[in-house]
Amino acid sequence: MGTTQLETVPEPKYWHLKTVLSEALDSDFSVGEILPNERELAARFGVARATLRQALEQLELEGRLQRRRGVGTTVAPPRMGVDVGTSQHTWPGTPGDSWKPADCTTALAPAAVSRMLGTGLQEPLHTVRRIRVSHGQPVAAELLYVPAASVPELPAIEAPSGPARARSVLRELQRLGLESQDRAVELGSARADDAKELDRLPGAPVLVVTTRYFAAGRTAAVSIATYRADTCRLTFGDSGDLEISHHGPTAQAS
């Protein structure tokens, strides 16, 4: 095979510098340490400040650095494990669930969600918004779509929205016998609502985890969870369970 055009393109200077800086962060700096200013760093590595800025921005995007106003650029702390896989199939909201209900509304779902649920495009769904926090930091935001047929006994007297309504939907959903669930992961961009919840800018890279819950021979609910891509990485254990974990030692999902 001949050499493709991409194979002849040299590695950008900032990308090579990012690799060098990453190794320096591991060997020469400690967690929380403030990096020297841009002028000093540029002189230390013999690069232009513009090249240095690009490398620093990439390291910040990858979660290796944190830029704090009034402080400077510091080495990011080790990341905590955020498990999204389980060997036991359970409904959202069961005891031990690490998600916190934030709101619930009744609205039309995206067309892709309606197709997964087998509902009509004009059929309103209960939409539960939940937040996942780890060590005080928001790491994921979720939208759980539940058709009325999955929660037929949901009280109509309660408030039509809010955390209390979200808990009611989750409670009623657990009355169904969960048969199975499947999960898919893909890279995406943060929507405005998710970006606000996760303290990121709209369009920031995120990991989108879509879960379908099956009961009574049909898809009973669909969850779309958005994880911060700059703080999470995916690992797969021997059991096949999925785990999202931060930098540092990772444990197999249980």
Order of helices and strands: HHHEEEEHEEHEHEEEE
Helix percentage range: 10-25%
Biggest sheet details: 6 strands, antiparallel
CATH class of the largest domain: Alpha Beta
Quantity of strands, as a count: 11
What is the CATH topology classification name of the largest domain?
Answer: Chorismate lyase
**Gap between N and C termini, in Å?**
45 Å
| Beta-strand share of residues | 25-35%
What is the residue-mean pLDDT, rounded to a whole number?
Answer: 81
Descriptive report:
With 254 residues, this protein is an alpha+beta fold. The radius of gyration is 22 Å and the shape is elongated. Strand 1 and strand 2 form a beta hairpin. The chain folds into two domains: 70 residues, Orthogonal Bundle (Arc Repressor Mutant, subunit A); 164 residues, Chorismate lyase (3-Layer(aba) Sandwich). The N terminus and C terminus are likely disordered. It contains six helices and eleven strands. The longest helix is centred in the first third of the chain and has 16 residues. The strands form three sheets. It has a six-stranded antiparallel beta sheet. It starts with 12 loop residues before the first helix and ends in a 9-residue tail after the last strand.
